[in-house]
Amino acid sequence: MERLSYEVEGRVLHLSHPTEMNITWVGQQDLLQQLLAAWITFDEKDIPLNPRIIGKPGVGKTTLAYTAGKSLNRDIYIFQGTIDTRPEDLIIIPVIDENQKIKYAASPLVSAMIKGGICIIDEGNRMSEKSWASLAPLLDQRRYVESVVAGIKIPAHPDFRVCVTLNEDASTFEIPEYISSRLAPQIFVDYPEYEEEFRIIAENVPQANDELVDYVVSFLQDAHTTQDAFSIRDGINITRYALRLLKNNCITGEKKFSIKKKNRKKKIIHLEKEPIKDKKKENEFTSDELINATIQSIQMVLGTEATVYFSEEEY
Ligand SMILES: Nc1ncnc2c1ncn2[C@@H]1O[C@H](COP(=O)(O)OP(=O)(O)OP(=O)(O)O)[C@@H](O)[C@H]1O
Ligand SMILES: [Mg+2]
């Protein structure tokens, strides 16, 4: 796909393409509203806030930011922060084109700044302080970045909005104070309650029947109360793989497991009063098959230790 070009201070920049994802945020509408509130401006002199979204891996931070941006009908540009991100990667990098000439490729962040789109700086605390330093003027009233490589200053379009997702895990850096004070407010994404988590998994794996989703969510809910940081993403993977094991007829469980009684919330009965989707009948399996598929999938997705949330007694 040809990159769009755009001229700034006499330099031709080649812009990145926005990211299209087929994801929608389910539940916790207050978080969506809090994020959108941060982006409001009251007049042309006013500037938006630059929220930071925090929470454990896989709880839906990127999904939240993407859905908020899409709800404003804007293009979304995602910049993935990594340990190797250099300051120029965030702004403009020189590339050699087919005629051996230098071309200036704008990062997703700068492309969003030029087009008036929304940039999600994803997993921002995987980047070092050096990379963050170049963004200080963008995140206050100045709203511009400078490219050392191209020797230009790039102002942000008034419609440009940015948010940052930060991860709570070991492979991250501390964000310097002068940057984190520019990344406000802080929006905390926590694990959802049973019913919401049920809807999220059902939405993401529409082929799964309610009973299978119930087993997976009951497992996740119990794990959320412990040190095990199993996430919604893990739940989605477990459900998707369990379905495939069932479809391929390769459930190997010799022992019969049951879900610990205390973990079964049985709220499914309530949910069935307002069906999430019409489940296809051909996906119906017996409870034994579904439980064993769940266990086997958990073992293969997360490891055998993860099955402590199931009891091994016969049922
Ligand atoms: N509230 C939700 N609505 C819909 N899908 C969700 C929700 N929360 C999580 N998911 C799904 O869970 C998976 C993980 O979500 P996402 O990638 O947004 O998490 P994350 O917090 O950004 O993860 P990471 O910390 O690894 O970057 C995705 O498949 C996403 O669609
Ligand atoms: Mg993410």
Helices, by number, come to: 11
What is the CATH architecture term of the largest domain? 3-Layer(aba) Sandwich
**What is the multimeric organization of the chains shown?**
single chain
Find the CATH topology of the largest domain: Rossmann fold
Order of helices and strands: EEHEHEHEEHEHEEEHEHHHEHHE
Helix content: 25-40%
Rg, rounded, reads 23 Å
- Structural category: alpha/beta
Major sheet: arrangement of strands: 4-7-10-3-11
Question: Major beta sheet, specifics?
Answer: 5 strands, parallel
Integer count of domains: 2
Tell me, briefly, the overall form.
elongated
Annotation, overall tally of beta strands: 13
Strand content: 15-25%
> Ranges with pLDDT <50 over ≥5 residues?
265-282
Bound molecules: adenosine-5'-triphosphate, magnesium ion
Q: Averaging pLDDT over every residue, what do you get?
A: 87
Under the CATH scheme, which class of the largest domain? Alpha Beta
Intertermini distance: 57 Å
- Under CATH, the homologous superfamily of the largest domain reads P-loop containing nucleotide triphosphate hydrolases
What would your notes on this structure say?
With 315 residues, the chain is α/β, with parallel strands linked by helices. The protein folds into 2 domains: 5-188, Rossmann fold (3-Layer(aba) Sandwich); 194-311, no CATH class. It is built from 11 helices and 13 strands. β1 (5-8) and β2 (11-14) form a beta hairpin. The model is unreliable at 265-282 (pLDDT under 50). The structure holds adenosine-5'-triphosphate and magnesium ion. Magnesium ion binds next to α2.
